[in-house]
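Below is a filled-in request sheet from our internal design queue. Each sheet records the structural input a requester submitted and the sequence that came back. We keep these sheets so that new team members can see what a complete request looks like end to end.

REQUESTER: design group, bay 2
PRIORITY: normal
MODE: inverse folding
CHAIN LENGTH: 234
BACKBONE (tokenized):
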């Protein structure tokens, strides 16, 4: 995998996040079906790579891999011509052609251990890591789609993270933030009739923050290293 330039994704929240949880945590918070399996921890996930996604399948909730960057079923051109779709704006997700069908019928949850944001002037950005104070996985509101490659006819499942305005606490770091659901609202988001009611900013005490190493500025190198989320020394 090639490295991803920092400037390309840091302005569009959420452009980097982590998935590092145990199967026991998955069962507890996600209520998934299926046998236990090993989960690969990843500490610097960038768009267009594979992520874990929770969706409702024929037999119940399932955790499946998908491409991060939603590809609508009607897309006819090569993937390299697809605009950035790893985020969808909460304010317009129900109307935008790229996302409205998935919002109506294919909502999902992207479990996350945390996510990154950068502050500072261009060329001297400081990376910050955000996670739940109690360490539990975050539940990002998401959408998924199934697209068929016109050349190979292979199906591709893909997903996007919905983002909305930052709450007062988060606005010190960025003006947007992922829509983070309470786990008790998971069922309502996945199958409820009023999903728009859940597209709101989380409470101001829902996250904690610390500065991390600028190593996270480059993805695709050492992404399985847990030291990426360690507090950076002053």
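RETURNED SEQUENCE:
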């Amino acid at each position: 995998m090639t490295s991803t330039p920092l400037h390309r994704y840091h302005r569009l929240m959420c452009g980097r996040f982590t998935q590092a949880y145990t199967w026991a945590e998955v069962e507890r918070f996600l209520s998934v079906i299926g046998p236990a399996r090993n989960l690969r921890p990843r500490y610097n996930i960038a768009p267009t790579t594979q992520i874990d996604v929770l969706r409702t399948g024929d037999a119940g909730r399932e955790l499946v891999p998908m491409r991060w960057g939603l590809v609508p079923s009607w897309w006819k051109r090569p993937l390299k011509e697809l605009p950035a779709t790893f985020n969808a704006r909460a304010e317009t997700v129900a109307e935008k052609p790229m996302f409205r069908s998935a919002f109506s019928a294919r909502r999902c949850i992207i479990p996350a251990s945390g996510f990154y944001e950068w502050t500072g002037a261009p060329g001297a950005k400081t990376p910050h890591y955000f996670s739940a104070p109690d360490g539990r996985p975050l539940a990002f509101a998401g959408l998924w789609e199934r697209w068929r490659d016109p050349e190979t006819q292979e199906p591709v499942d893909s997903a996007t993270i919905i983002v909305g305005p930052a709450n007062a606490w988060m606005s010190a770091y960025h003006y947007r933030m992922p829509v983070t659901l309470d786990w008790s609202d998971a069922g309502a988001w996945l199958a409820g009739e009023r999903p728009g009611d859940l597209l709101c900013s989380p409470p101001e005490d829902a996250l904690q923050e610390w500065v991390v190493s600028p190593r996270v500025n480059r993805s695709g190198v050492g992404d399985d290293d847990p030291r990426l989320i360690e507090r950076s020394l002053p």
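SHEET NOTES:
- The domain at 6-229 is CATH 3.90.1680.10 (hypothetical protein yedk fold).
- The helical segments are 6-9, 23-30, 100-105, 186-191.
FILED BY: M.R.
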